[in-house]
Amino acid sequence: MLKFLLFVILVAIAVYLTVRVIQRRGIAPTPRRKSAPPRVVGPDDDPDFLRDLDRKRKHPEDPET
């Protein structure tokens, strides 16, 4: 029983070390997503809209441009 347990431990260590070597060398690289520039989804995400809204709230007498 002790020999079997020792064999299982050695196999587990070998598998672990093999996986670590593969990860370090980049043989099986993980796919990386290219990050797209942030885009305006709605008016609450648009800085120009928010700036104009804030200006209209602070100075309601200004004519619209």
Please give a quick description of this structure:
This protein is an all-alpha fold and 65 residues long.
Strand content: under 5%
Identify the overall geometry: rod-shaped
The helix-strand sequence is: HH
> How does the helix and strand content classify structurally?
mainly alpha
Integer-rounded radius of gyration: 30 Å
**Uncertain ranges:** none
Largest sheet properties: none
Number of DSSP-assigned strands: 0
Number of helices: 2
Mean pLDDT: 79
Distance between the termini: 86 Å
State the share of residues found in helices, binned by percent: 55-70%
Describe the structure.
The protein is mostly helical and 65 residues long. It has 2 helices and no strands. The radius of gyration is 30 Å and the shape is rod-shaped. The model has no long low-confidence stretch (mean pLDDT 79).
Write the layout of secondary structure elements.
Elements: H1 2-25, H2 47-58
Which structural traits does this protein have?
mainly alpha; 0% strand; 65 residues
